[in-house]
Amino acid sequence: MFECFTEKALNTVIAAQEYARSLGRNRVGTELLLLGILSDNSDIAGKILRDRGLTLDKVKLEIENITVQGADNSGVEILFTDNARKVLQAAWDISARLGHNYIGRIHLLYGLVNINAGIALKVFNNLGIDVKELKNQINETLSKIQPMPFSIKTPTSYLIFRKSHFIMGLFVIVLVFLLLGFYLFHF
Q: How many structural domains is the chain composed of?
C-alpha cells in the first residue's frame, strides 16, 4: 500500500510511528496520524488544519489529556490500530475513486475525518473543530485536484498492469490444460 504514497504522506506515517515510540506505544492510532499530518504545515492538508487553529503542541496536549502513556516499547514493531488502518484504507479508496495515482497527505486527512471513529475525532471535538465543515472543505479541495494521466510508471497503474499480467498468465495456463485435456481424451 505504501508504494503509492507521496514522499510527504510517507513521512507523515513515519512521523506518526515516531510519536508512538516517544509515547511508549506499540500502535499508531488516528491521533498519531493527526500529529503526523500536523508535523508538516507546508501543504494544503497542514494549511487546512492550521487555519482552524490546530497546532502540533495544542493537539499533543489534548492527546496527553485523553490517552495514557504506554510503557517503553523501543525496538518493538509499531503496528496500526483498526481505526488507523481504516484511515489508510479510506485514503486509498478516495484516491482511487478520484483517479489520483498517489496517496497524499490530503487523502490521509480525508480518511481521518471520514471514518467517524478514533481518538483524533475526540481531539477535534474537544478542541471545538466542526468536523462536518472540515469534511466539506477537504472534499472541496480534493474535487479540485485533477487526475494524473495514465502512465505505466505510476504506482496505481503499475499495480493494475501487474494484476492484468497475472490474470493473463492464469488464462494461458487454464487454456493449456483445457487443450491438453481435449487432446488426451479425443485421441
A: 2
Let me know whether 91 and 12 are in one domain. Answer: yes
DSSP letters for 22-39: HTT-SEE-HHHHHHHHHT
pLDDT in tens, 77-116: 788 999 999 999 999 999 988 888 889 999 999 999 998 8
DSSP 74: T
Burial group, residue 185, by CB count within 10 angstroms (0-12, 13-18, 19+): exposed
> What gap in Å lies between CA 29 and CA 35, rounded to an integer?
10
On whether both 155 and 102 belong to a single domain, the answer is no
Confidence (pTM)? 0.74
Encode pLDDT of 121-141 as tens digits: 999 999 999 999 999 999 999
Q: What backbone phi and psi angles, to 5 degrees, belong to 6?
A: -70, 165
C-alpha 124/C-alpha 129 separation (Å) is 5
Q: Indicate the SS3 state at residue 101.
A: coil
Query: In whole angstroms, how far apart are CA 161 and each of 25, 67, 71, 167?
Result: 38, 44, 45, 10
Containing structural domain, residue 187: 149-187
